[in-house]
Specification:
With about 325 residues, this protein is of the alpha+beta class. The chain has 10 helices and 14 strands.
Length: about 325
């Protein structure tokens, strides 16, 4: 497959999924072509018509926000390292490290969850399918997140079916490798400048990086210190925003799977803005991967994923 930078329409289009779900062949062909163009340039697109309740996303933000605003000592018992299940506190991650850039730690905190349904293979389960940790201070969070995770798994598989067709392959081209996949889910809190003070030079809410897996489903809030996407044609640009849409990007494994036809979406989250010092944001980030043991053009998918998680660990 040959990579090209030819673009028709916006670099990051908004795709209404309802015609795709309806099964109309002409509509599906148009959508698949639009997706292919977007993933060859920015590695990003927006999707509407996904059927996920916006009220659920709001409730998760409210519940998670209660946890994040607890005193530090109340959160410490849940502290984990990158790749763990629990609280990633200030200074835990520096995503720019994945690109080989020595940046200050990212200005965020996260509640991290991951796949926990065991496969029955002890070594695999011990690394990738451990029980999640749920903060007792916010008991309603668990049911909200578990409902959302079920919807994210379904949506991600539907997106992978679309990506298979966009690549010119059968719908099952990717989903045959997601019978028992790993996934990660971060609720990211980006505190205000009032709370954090002045950022260090070169410090971001999340430093420049590409994601590591197959597809990421992001529910985000608009902000001055928000998401930016990099393309060769436009450089760094503010990502388009639609409150009804999910922001979708592909990661390194998906780019490799397509032999470079599609590009892993490079992005960053800007520092808390000086002109809106009270701005704080919460993003819901679902990272979908594939079954342990999946070989992606000669590399073991989960050896790669573990190396990248280790690479962004700060401190």
């Amino acid at each position: 497959m040959t990579q090209t930078t030819e673009v028709a329409g916006p670099r990051i289009p908004t795709i209404d999924l309802r015609p795709w779900f309806s099964g109309d062949p002409a509509a599906r062909a148009r959508i698949a072509a639009s997706v292919d163009r977007a993933l060859r340039t920015a590695g990003f697109l927006l999707v509407t018509g996904h059927g996920v309740d916006p009220g659920l996303r709001m409730e998760i933000r409210e519940a998670a926000g209660e946890f994040f605003r607890l005193p530090q000592e109340a959160k410490e018992p849940y502290a984990v390292r990158v790749g763990g299940r629990g609280w990633l506190g200030p200074g835990a991650e520096a995503n720019g490290y994945a690109e080989g850039t020595e940046t200050p730690p990212d200005l965020k905190e996260s509640l991290s969850f991951a796949a926990e349904d065991p496969t029955g293979v002890a070594a695999v389960d011990a690394e990738w399918f451990l029980p999640n940790t749920w903060p007792g201070e916010v008991p309603r969070l668990r049911a909200l997140v578990e409902t959302y995770l079920g919807q994210m798994r379904d949506l991600s598989d539907r997106l992978l079916e679309l990506l298979g067709v966009a690549l010119g392959e059968p719908e099952t081209f990717f989903t045959r490798h997601t019978t028992h996949p790993t996934w990660g889910f971060n609720v990211n809190w980006y505190p205000s400048r009032e709370r954090l003070g002045r950022p260090q030079p070169g410090q971001f809410r999340i430093g420049p990086h590409t994601d590591f897996g197959t597809v990421t489903v992001l529910d985000r809030q608009a902000g001055r210190g928000g998401l930016q996407v990099f393309t060769d044609e436009g450089g760094w640009e503010d990502a388009p925003y639609d409150p009804d849409a999910f922001t979708i990007n592909i990661g390194d494994l998906m780019a490799r799977w397509t032999d470079g036809r599609w590009r892993s979406g490079r992005h960053r989250v800007l520092p808390p803005p000086a002109d809106v010092p009270a701005e704080e944001l919460i993003s819901l980030v679902y990272f979908y991967e594939c079954d342990p043991g999946t070989q992606v053009r000669g590399i073991d998918s989960h050896t790669y994923l573990r190396a990248q998680l280790d690479a962004i660990t700060a401190g």
